[in-house]
Design brief:
A hairpin with an 8-residue loop joins strand 9 (151-157) and strand 10 (166-170). The longest helix has 22 residues, at 97-118. The strands form 3 sheets. Strands 4, 5, 6, 7, 8, 13, 14, 17 and 18 form a 9-stranded antiparallel beta sheet that branches. A 7-stranded antiparallel beta sheet has the order 1-2-3-16-15-9-10. Strands 11-12 form a two-stranded antiparallel ribbon. The protein is 25% helix and 27% strand. The chain contains 9 helices and 18 strands. The two termini are 12 Å apart. The chain is of the alpha+beta class and 379 residues long. It has one domain (4-176, 212-378): Phosphatase 2c, domain 1 (4-Layer Sandwich).
Length: 379
């Protein structure tokens, strides 16, 4: 019931587009522990990043879902993960690592059913997947769970005597075989496959195909039956599997929030390809709150432009699809932590509950398809 209106359309005025027609942002909204800000820039023909923030007097949920192979898996997670979390948390009397794992498992299982139903008409849906980054604040406890290489970073006050006033602390694990530790983990799980991780097209890839080792979806890398089916061979080369080479087992971290914890940055890897954890944290710490997520996105785009000896103004003119050659879809959510160790439910009168989602496709906001962008308030 709390989340059912996450799917009703919203008025255009809640999110804004600036001079970059593929950049959408929402400056500041309240959550139980402070304020939050969202920004998204589209590079792919269809936006493959999806994101949402659920707020209530008692909890804040954050989701960033970076799709690959198409937008279907990230959109599916956007519609199903939070309701599963709410239902399992209600059944078990609160949030826990077990509740989060069950919600991830249920979302993966339901997406598998969708793939099986869609298979005869659209066999390529077996190759669609998504990274999944989830964060929650409940009773001054922070939960972070992820699959893939979207990342959560904490900005906290530095101890006295440090050169910088703020410290960046990474809270999630990058499940990407570019990381040597992850490569070794994958190789250890497949001792009988000397080609489980292959260096190709400038990066390490599992079976020469995919960089992330954990995801929702990517069923052709998890279920041998999809690879064996002649339908699949019509659009992709078969990948002989003895066992799944990608999993949906999330890494989960839980920590008590402390007064020196200042803010959280949740972002897809499009941001982290351009900015270090430290650079992103310093931008948030040194700038005004209003439009802070947009500022991070623009900083990343300026870095992407610099690498090509271009200006951001030049990149802004490049249309979706082609723009993917210059940068990835980028999603950023900044969560400020102002009210830790204090009652803040007074900020939510009448027990209001909000569910804020970024647009399903930013480019479509040029048309009358504003129903793709959704914010809902329940009183």
């Amino acid at each position: 019931m709390m989340l059912r209106s996450c799917y009703r359309p919203l008025e255009r005025c809640f999110g804004r587009r600036g001079s970059d027609g593929l950049l959408w942002h929402m400056d500041l909204k309240p959550h139980a522990s402070g304020d939050f800000s969202i920004a998204v820039v589209q590079a792919n023909s269809s936006l493959e990043d999806q994101s949402q923030v659920f707020t209530s007097p008692f909890a804040t949920y954050v989701g960033v879902y970076d799709g690959h192979g198409g937008p279907e898996a990230s959109r599916f997670i956007n519609n199903h993960l939070f309701p599963h979390l709410h239902n399992f948390a209600t059944e078990q009397g609160g949030l826990s690592a077990d509740v989060i794992k069950k919600a991830f498992d249920a979302t993966e299982e339901e997406f598998l059913h969708l793939v099986k139903r869609s298979w005869p008409a659209r066999p390529q849906i077996a190759s669609v997947g998504s990274c999944c980054l989830f964060g929650a604040i409940s009773n001054d406890v922070l939960y972070v769970a992820n699959l893939g290489d979207s990342r959560a970073v904490l900005g906290r006050k530095a101890s006295e005597g440090r050169r910088t006033p703020v410290v960046a602390e990474r809270l999630s694990t990058d499940h990407n075989v570019a990381v040597e530790e992850v490569r070794k983990e994958v190789e250890a799980l497949h001792p009988d496959d000397s080609h489980i991780v292959v260096y190709t097209r400038g990066v390490w890839r599992i079976k020469g195909i995919i960089q992330v080792s954990r995801s929702i979806g990517d069923m052709y890398l998890k279920k041998p039956e999809f690879n064996r089916d002649p339908l699949f061979h019509q659009f992709g080369s078969p990948v002989p599997l003895k066992r799944p080479v990608v999993t949906a087992e999330p890494s989960i971290q839980i920590r008590k929030l402390k007064p020196h914890d200042l803010f959280l940055i949740f972002a897809s890897d499009g941001l982290w390809e351009q900015l270090s954890d430290e650079a992103a944290v310093e931008i948030v710490f040194n700038n005004p709150r209003a439009g802070i997520a947009k500022r991070l996105v623009r900083a990343a785009l300026q870095e992407a432009a610099k690498k090509r000896e271009m200006r951001y103004d030049d990149i802004k003119k490049i249309e979706k699809g082609i723009r993917r050659h210059f940068h990835d879809d980028i999603t950023v959510i900044v969560i400020y932590l102002d009210h830790i160790q204090g009652s803040s439910s007074g900020r939510f009168k009448n027990s209001a509950v909000d569910c804020t989602s970024a647009p399903v496709d930013i480019f479509s906001l040029n048309t009358d398809e504003a129903e793709d962008e959704r914010i809902h308030t329940i009183s």
